[in-house]
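Standup notes, structure subgroup. Blocker cleared on the S-adenosyl-L-homocysteine input:
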Amino acid sequence: MTPLARIIAEQIAATGPISVAEYMRLCLGHPQHGYYTTRDPLGEAGDFTTAPEISQMFGEMIGLWIASQWHEGTRLVELGPGRGTLMADALRVLRGADMAPEVWFVETSPVLREAQAGRVGDARWATMLDQVPDGPLIAIANEFFDALPVREYLETPQGWRERQVGLIEDKLGFGLSSPLPLRPEAPGWWAQSVEADAILAEIANRLRADGGAALIIDYGYASADRPAGPTLQALRSHAPQDPLEAPGETDLTWLQDFDHMRKLLCGLHTRVSGQGAFLAAMGIGQRAAKLAAATPGAADTLADALERLTAPEQMGTLFKVLAVSATDRPMPGF
Ligand code: SAH
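Run returned:
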């Protein structure tokens, strides 16, 4: 049993089963034992690898997209920046084009803030988006929304019930709440994150008020392709694992519903594409060829990275890119 498993079991024994969202909040954000509070989980030696950690080309393509949307005075905000790799790669592109945006990182993890400071020395930090001063902004979020707490519901013959974490013979186990008066949009399993919805709504409000654009990249689906089972997933050392197995030592994530996100961005201009198509349209193929020509010894590594980022059976279609802008301006990548 991990130390956090003991704490969670004691809490459940005292006050009853908790929602999947509460479980996620404790596992990822507990001040002493939370997964993101205590470690840098990224990279080949960690639990999972993200696109910016696969190759500099990813951040460079995002940098080109930012350059297309940026004008003097626009703040650049990244939510959940991990090691700061994406931003460091994007800033190289922006500075090459004489653009020097003020950079803000929205990050709660002290360990990752330190890593970010090492990559982007002149960044500013906030724990919530509303601490970033008003004004036009470009917001970037790669694999950020999937780290926010999500609640899960299941339709049963008795009505909608919430999936909960309780105790089964002194061990953490999943169960279902009593029926709830809910009216989700579709039958089966249904997931909802109040936190993710609130942050997206705040981005939308700021774009409506002050202008700007946002790029959200995550793995997810269109509503019509909603998965038939629960959305919560656990990853450890790059392999799926039981989400209740090692609380605080396992990454917990869930899949994003991109149609739902688009609804929250109503009144703004949105576009969605697969990550592979987006990166191809931004010119990642040409960039890979140029880098390979400059460093022939790295050609295989670059080809491998290109494949991982764009191939349909890798990150190319499961990962999606949602762009949103306040005005209907031209936008590369879609
Ligand atoms: N974007 C990075 C890291 C993804 S991991 C990359 O692609 O490599 C998720 C990131 O979100 C981590 O930096 C984590 O510390 C941060 N995070 C998780 N919950 C958060 C919250 N509630 N507020 C701000 N940052 C959060």
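Discussed briefly. The longest helix spans residues 194-210.
Next: hand off to the docking folks.
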